[in-house]
Amino acid sequence: MRPLWWKIVDTSGAAISLTVMIELKDVTRRFGTTVALDRISLTIEEGSFTSLLGPSGCGKSTTLRIIAGLDQPSEGDVVFAGRSVTGMTAAERNIAMVFQSYALYPHMSVRQNITLPLAMREMSRWERTVLLDRLLPSARRKSAELADKVHAVAAMLHIEALLDRKPNALSGGQKQRAAVARALVRDPVAFLLDEPLSNLDAALRVQMRSELTDLHRRTGRTFIYVTHDQAEAMSMSDRIAVIMQGRIVQVGRPPEIYEQPATREVAAFIGDHPINFLEVSATAGPLPPPFDAFALDVAEAGRRIVVGLRPEGLRPAADGPLIGRIERLEYLGSQAVATVALGGGYSVRAVLPTESGVAAVGEAVRLGFDAGRVRLFDAGSGERLAAGLVPLASGAVRPARRTTR
Ligand code: ATP
Asked: Does residue 94 register a pLDDT over 70?
């Protein structure tokens, strides 16, 4: 069977799209009794940078392997550009994948590693034979074309000077670039990356993030990026699909995921500092301490709710509603993370600026926050509630609505 990219042409034979929309429709993958993916549906827009984000074992790699054609769903369909590709091999789908381990051949030079997938696709067995390569005009022509493509992609990734080295003579970042070059040289319709930065040190990881997003911009290809690192997903992606226990729990742009997390688990997973959760019983009037300066704007009386306060959303304020004492302090330079005991068994972590001096353990503090950025969750289901906090001092509580979402 010819690869799918071959067929994405208009009637004159000219290629009309080298990138495709990818859809997963009710995809389930079982391994024996383990349900790795449970009816996953996802649309990945062509040319987008989409991250699959979630904790270890949630099903990210399985999703990527199913998109690539390296694994098949137990049920459901994989669709490229409106056509089912379920059952097609990885080669037929023309998808490129970069693995965490890079998977470079150690006995081959970087040039050979990059050339191999192209030669396998574009040259016959005879043309690939070293001796005939010199004699056959078609092989000579194709070899020259391949060399040009390899150089172009090596230049794009700044590894031209490394083409004759073997992988064991490369640094982690250079290996990573060589692996990306090898994937890119085939001109794939989509580019799948499975935790490609996790073997690099922190500084190089940050540098490679911007190199990959730059590459995405320059190639215009669909990138699907698997990571458990929320900072990577937040900083690189157009859209994030958060996967937990084999299910997609939320899909959205990074600010949506941060500001409007669908569940308590998503809220806990996103953000540089772990979000504070404080559980209280909802009441018709003022909430119980430490939120007694607030009421809910939606009728939730009697419900156990979890108040989500981001540490970076708390700030020292002379009239702040949260009054407590600093129990622990982690100094980070421009900021310090304080653990503040509020009484009643509650405590919160707050990111405090250090420019006007560092607070000390044992010091009393008052903390304020923007009530509009507080997120409330149902204590039982973990789902985010439509309810919000209304400061009592700032005016009347809006009439109670009956919605809960
Ligand atoms: P990580 O971030 O740790 O790589 P992940 O989110 O990529 O994890 P997957 O590798 O997709 O998770 O695995 C999802 C679930 O499926 C896990 O429970 C895993 O143990 C299981 N699983 C994956 N592959 C197989 C397999 N070949 N045989 C049996 N179980 C498997």
From this structure: yes
Could you tell me the distance, in angstroms and rounded to a whole number, from the CA of residue 64 to the centre of ligand 1?
Answer: 11
Q: Output 132 or 38, whichever has higher pLDDT.
A: 38
Q: What distance in angstroms lies between residue 233's CA and the mean position of ligand 1's atoms?
A: 20
Question: For the chain, what is the domain count?
Answer: 2
7 by Cβ neighbours in 10 Å (0-12 / 13-18 / 19+) ranks as exposed
Using CA positions, which residue lies closest to atom 18 of ligand 1?
57
Distant-in-sequence, close-in-space partners of 124: CB < 8 Å, separation ≥ 6: none
Q: How confident is the model at residue 10 (pLDDT cuts 50, 70, 90)?
A: very low
If you write DSSP's letter for every residue of 194-258 in order, what string do you get? ESTTTTS-HHHHHHHHHHHHHHHHHH--EEEEEES-HHHHHHH-SEEEEEETTEEEEEE-HHHHH
Residue 63 CA to ligand 1 centre (angstroms) = 10
The CATH number that applies at residue 91 is 3.40.50.300
Residue 44 within a domain? yes
Q: Judge if 309 and 234 occupy the same domain.
A: no
Q: Is the CB of 62 under 6 A from ligand 1?
A: yes
Pair 213, 49: CB distance under 8 Å: yes
